[in-house]
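Justification of resources, computational component.

The compute hours requested in this renewal are based largely on the per-chain cost of generating structure records like the one below. Each record pairs the submitted sequence with a full structure-token output. That output is archived, and it is also reused by downstream analysis tasks.
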Amino acid sequence: MIAGRTYWIIGASEGLGRALAHEMDDAGARLILSARSVERLASLAGEIGGPVRVVPMDVTDPASVRDAVDAAGEVDGVIYCAGFYEPLGVAEWEPEAVEAMCEVNFMGAVRVLGHVAPAMAARGHGHMVLIGSLGGFTGLPGAIGYGASKAALMHLAENMQADLRGSGVRVQQINPGFIRTRLTDKNDFAMPFIMEPEEAARRVVHAMKTGRFATSFPWLFSWLFRAGRFLPRSLFLRLF
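The structure output for this chain reads:
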């Protein structure tokens, strides 16, 4: 399912994306790596044992996305894990930061998949993996911009899966909890069940090998978020 196939990892330079590149390489995939930092991508490519290409891309720039799509060419799969995060509540709302989260976390996926998804549908095969977040299941304190952008990305995955059922194109939504990265380092609160990027990457690749549309982890923590949608709102917020 993965070995010998070409996967384009978007957001590969740091954190989960970087760990995914190693995990996918171990699984035998041919890799295309994209992010803004050419230097970080080049260093990552030097760590990869299998076939790898570097295609720099800024997902917030439509021209950069078009150029990268042309450079990447036909791919068997795409993993969208580009992400940006600033911990912000309403009182601290920073318009530029909130807009940046929406641009990177959601609109970037719209730009890329607007080229990739129709091509896969026309060919009748392909694999698209969107990395959501447990924070996308319901509104949380201090998550202005981030939660909404991840919720939109997760909804997009559901739209595509509904359209592409039976087409030969697989769509998956994978929703991790806290991962120890330079982004979560910004948090000043305890992060339950926090994972290292390598562990999260193993879980993502394991999920990719299954037939499930949606996978959320860690299981116990994810159950709280999923069940929270059915609890009275006041009760759910008290839990946090």
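The longest helix spans residues 95-123. The radius of gyration is 17 Å.
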